[in-house]
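Obj.: predict assembly geometry.
Materials: sequence records (below).
Method: joint structure prediction, all chains together.
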Amino acid sequence: MSDREPAVRVSGLVKTYGSIRALDGLDLEVPQGVVYGFLGPNGAGKTTTMRILTGLIRSDSGQVELLGQRLRWLDRKPMFDVGALIESPAFYPYLSGRDNLRVLAGVGAPPRAGRVEEVLELVRLTDRAGDRYSTYSLGMKQRLGIAAALLNDPRLLLLDEPANGLDPAGIVDMRALLQGLVEVGKTVFVSSHILPEIQQMADQIAIIARGRLVRSGPLDRLLGESGQVRIHVDPDAVPHAAEALGRLAVDARPDDQDPGWITVAASSARAAEFNRALVTAGVDVSGLEVGSDLETLFLSLTKEV
Amino acid sequence: MHLLRATGLKLRRRPATYRTVLVLAGLLAFLYLSIGVSAAAISDPTARASLLPLLAFPDAGTGLASILLIFGGIAGAGYAGAVAASEWSWNTFRVALTRGESRVRYVVILFVGIALLVVVAWLLLCVLGTGLVLLGATLGGVPTASPLDPASLDRLLAIVVMGSWAVLMEVAIGFGVAFAARSPVAGIAAVAGLYFVEQFAVLIVPIDMLRFAPITAAGSLVSAAGRTGFDASLAAPLVVTTLYLFLAIAAAAAVARRAEVS
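Observations (raw structure tokens):
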């Protein structure tokens, strides 16, 4: 495949379960060499999408391409370059972590010699690799799941809630690990509910709701487009300031928890305009914060659907 | 080969693999020692004579294989069913698919791994059982020919080979049903149910038809091997047994091929 070809291309994906339309014509393009956050509320179709991408279930219609290869039912070749952790990690409880990886190494495309020890080291499980999987903590199980996904040194990683059960240090490690993979040209597609984590980690995101793509693109651009501006004024001047901002046709809301602060839902590029309007209206601005968080963006986009 | 090695590793380390064999060995020991002790206590020549087929070779080989076929078949079906169903409950089948493994190959090789272990267990239990028959005969004071006499040996070898094939068929049914139903209980219930149903079916179904039933065919295979050793009389039950074995695996493979895996 060429470098310009998307790592994942999904077009018109439809999947129904009885009367429920889990995916309703989903389109998606994941460029190569990025951490791609895949977001959506419960029931939006994230897990269904992940299952179709890994060949676990069939779509009713639509197409999937992984690393330039069309994914067809029972065609396992496109999966040889893909590593996946779907939902929860799954291993034999009576085997050690190391033996579980050895068993997996015999399944599908064989990894290179010594890879089991490499991935154990990568997820910092070497010390406990000889212990039975059933004795592992939730975080260790998750790390072993990531190790299994990395076994084939895949060019594309599909991870469903990879931070589940990880402690803060584990989350930091995982973030560094995934970003390190991207630095060497791999693509990481992450479905997650932990929005601050995605905000720190992802280069691009897609937000889906009711089985459809709501918005996608570079995270910075999306946050900039639908950002927020927080303005601090004298608490007594808040009603007057809100009125002045309202004249600019923006949604300005005084912050009840934080007296004197007003939150304006608007692109950060308009911060100077708001400052000017307030000064013109005779309100002194004593603080101004720009930016947005993914949570605000996510809630605003998924609420509309 | 990689997949078979991986399957071997996961089956060899599974505690149930050894527990199943140990339970069967314990059961055999209990049965034959009880029979030996009972034989010693019986003074009535007619009653003692009824124990001869169980303790005296060459007939004791058929008795041993029949016991092993019933208990081994049900235990083996339970074991294979548990292995097959756990691929669903532990989601390890799902992981294999996400690694690009072929659905059909995975299931067939899983059964091949189980079958290899079943054959090894069958051989071990046959050797142990032969020893226990001799011990029971000694305890009971029953005169027996050596199992290594040419007359006994030919029949014993036929019983061991055909018995292992018969027990594999029962294990395959347990495996196929459990994989399709995604339930470990379904496999053992299917084989135990067949034993039960075929026992009573003899009352209403003509015997000519019943010989095409799986458990009856497996039993016929073992008893024919015990009667005559390797000869043409094995052909019909061997064909029926083989057919059921492959049908069961084909059914499991078909389910794997079509299944939506969540």
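Conclusions so far: The first strand of chain A starts at residue 8 and ends at 17.
To do: check interface contacts against the pulldown list.
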